[in-house]
């Protein structure tokens, strides 16, 4: 078979298999990134405004997750979490449940993303000039509204470069789920390559797909950042 | 204690009353029992050297700082506090803050919002005013402070004087009972001070109640009904501006006035 035939969408081509893998990868990346953002936002506010116990717990979480290699974490969380969930289900009188690959992937990567997001968002929130928040307090805005309408929009411009990095890591980390047998893009590629022996074709194809995702994301995040920074003062030449 | 020259037999109602206010930061007592009353329409000006506690006093009035002891009464409503001095009712504090328009030395306009969005933010999203009504109100105020053309500009693209006028308009847009100014012109280039003082003067002329902290002594003398000189956390001397600036009694005030003129 020629290259185009190998990459054709319907069998005997493997293009369809790759696209199914890609779709799974994207769903996991989006889910994990979203979960990571939610954990990160809660974690950042907890670290800044929380009591000592909460702050210590969060410190353990971010330190451990950021210290361990992601591969180990994924194995640990994947088997640990599914095991834990099932133990809990059994203990409370329910049967074992089958956790779907996507759900497990989102949970595992989300917990990893959350630790990094906590630090990115904490730094960005602390960089919001105190006068911005003080003005809102002085006008009688309730704390929740201050967070939503003042602090978060203001810190967004500062956080987006870091968040953009996290998103790219999320897309690539989905490949690590191949190790636990999850059928995402990298595993699909390996199957296609193994079956047809056309290693170059498929791994280059997968590489191009990851590159396109990365380029589109970078462009998207740049637009988002420009929007978030719409109120920034004009830059003078020489970086003043 | 205050305007004894007041001829009116039925005095105007009190807008702001501060009684025996004390405030410490750790072991450092910054306010040592200060009492001030502003009746409706009064312009009460606080003067004093750096570190004398002027900002702290102003910030205690709207509970940006929690007083260590003393009473704060706004429009006849006393702020309820727990035994430890912290406000008992968050809602009450928010309501009281909405009735006091505060203007900061550093403007503090929200950088990610246009001038118009800054003005309507709290009226629409906190007070629940319909948006078109808030926009109408905001445009009138922007016109009044001379910023009609700037409603779509972001604060960073305005001069300091324009930003401060926008910040005053933002405070007015809540239709507050009184205004609190903390050195509104201290961060401005000298040539921009006049335009901001002109706006504040127009507010005084229309009978707005305000507490004003300023180092502009000439301006204070012209607009104030009552002037308070704070020294080291206590009121060293107070009275009508003619007397305080024209015939100061205490040696410290004389010294202070000499140093700032
Ligand atoms: N949050 C704080 N924590 C600790 N000390 C503070 C705090 N805020 C103010 N102070 C101290 O309280 C004292 C009074 O400060 P305040 O800002 O009220 O003075 P001020 O009269 O407004 O002076 P200035 O003219 O310089 O603005 C100063 O000694 C200051 O260092
Ligand atoms: Mg001050």
Automatic annotation (TrEMBL), chain A:
Pfam families: BPD_transp_1. The keyword Membrane applies. Belongs to the binding-protein-dependent transport system permease family. HisMQ subfamily. Keywords: Cell inner membrane, Cell membrane, Membrane, Transmembrane, Transmembrane helix, Transport. One of its GO terms (molecular function) is transmembrane transporter activity. PANTHER family: ARGININE ABC TRANSPORTER PERMEASE PROTEIN ARTQ, CATIONIC AMINO ACID TRANSPORTER, MEMBRANE COMPONENT. The lineage of its organism: Bacteria, Pseudomonadati, Pseudomonadota, Alphaproteobacteria, Rhodobacterales. It is a multi-pass membrane protein. SUPFAM superfamilies: MetI-like. It is found in: Cell inner membrane; Cell membrane. The chain crosses the membrane at residues 25-46, 58-81, 93-112, 150-170, 199-222. This is Histidine transport system permease protein HisQ. The keyword Disulfide bond does not apply. InterPro entries: AA_ABC_transptr_permease_3TM (IPR010065), ABC_transp_permease_HisMQ (IPR051613), MetI-like (IPR000515), MetI-like_sf (IPR035906). It comes from Pseudogemmobacter humi.
UniProtKB/TrEMBL annotation, chain B:
Its main location: membrane. GO terms for molecular function: ABC-type amino acid transporter activity; ATP binding; ATP hydrolysis activity. Transmembrane segments: none annotated. The keyword Ribonucleoprotein does not apply. SUPFAM superfamilies: P-loop containing nucleoside triphosphate hydrolases. Keywords: ATP-binding, Cell membrane, Membrane, Nucleotide-binding, Transport. GO terms for cellular component: plasma membrane. InterPro entries: AAA+_ATPase, ABC_ATPase_HisP-typ, ABC_transporter-like_ATP-bd, ABC_transporter-like_CS, MetN_ABC_transporter-like, P-loop_NTPase. It is found in: Cell membrane. It is a peripheral membrane protein. Pfam families: ABC_tran. Residues 16-257 form the ABC transporter domain. Belongs to the ABC transporter superfamily. This is Octopine permease ATP-binding protein P. It comes from Pseudogemmobacter humi. The lineage of its organism: Bacteria, Pseudomonadati, Pseudomonadota, Alphaproteobacteria, Rhodobacterales.
